[in-house]
Design a protein that fits this description.
It comes from Lysinibacillus fusiformis. The chain has twelve helices and five strands. It is α/β, with parallel strands linked by helices.
Length: 229
């Protein structure tokens, strides 16, 4: 099986060497890169499937937007020591596909990269909590959303868009699968739809959930012929 290509943009030499050691068996890795000088020339040559960027500064955010605009089949991962609530919203809108913490275990790192390279999103449980809090602010700021959905329904809709199944949603929210199903049916009834795809599509078109979060998982789930809710 052909290895996929990965570019790692990390200033810390020891951390970069550690990432290369863990991932080099699965990816062709290019890590000796100056972000400001030759990144885009190398992208044209290597056509990376994934780019790992150290932290999301304003300058790096500009690069993320450009990468996702010019290379839609290249996915961006943020490598960081801390995840900020205000940053997640902006990062998702820019096109970031996942956050990886410095202390991530080797097995989990491989899993994260495999998911992202297939066009899915990766968030660990703590990141998902921050993500939900971030978008609950959107819930509170848009009258039509709070009028249409309860907060629980809105969180479940977000998690459906993120690609989570009923069991995963149940575990994350610590409520029963039966309760999840009841809420999903309420969402479908309110939106006058019958499937997950229809619900997410309608929510995206009305800008109730972020396009970048939903669209990748819609197509990945469809192409893999997964069982849809």
């Amino acid at each position: 099986m052909l290895k996929k290509n990965m570019i790692i943009l990390e200033n810390n030499l020891y951390l970069k060497m550690g990432l290369v050691k863990i991932l080099e068996s699965d990816y062709n890795i290019y890590s000796d890169i100056d972000l400001s000088k030759n990144l885009y020339d190398l992208m044209k040559h290597y056509k990376p499937d994934i780019i790992v960027i150290n932290d999301l500064s304003k300058n790096n955010l500009k690069h993320v937007k450009r990468i996702r605009s010019e290379y839609p089949n290249t996915y961006v991962v943020i490598l960081t020591s801390i995840i900020l609530e205000d940053e997640i919203h902006e990062a998702l809108l820019a096109g970031v596909s996942g956050y990886v913490l410095y202390n991530i275990k080797s097995k989990e790192l491989r899993k994260a990269m495999d998911l992202i390279s297939e066009g899915e999103y990766y968030f660990n449980s703590s990141t998902m909590t921050i993500f939900i809090k971030s978008y609950l602010k959107l819930f509170d700021s848009k009258e039509i959303i709070s009028h249409l959905f309860t907060k629980r329904e809105y969180v479940i809709l977000l998690m459906l868009a993120e690609g989570k199944n009923i069991q995963e949603i149940s575990q994350t929210l610590n409520i029963s699968e039966k309760s999840i199903n009841i809420n999903i049916n309420k969402i479908y009834n309110k939106l006058s739809v019958k499937t997950r795809i229809q619900a997410i599509d309608k929510a995206v078109k009305n800008r109730w959930i972020p396009y970048n979060l939903a669209i990748s998982n819609l197509y990945v789930n469809y192409n893999k012929k997964r069982t849809l809710l």
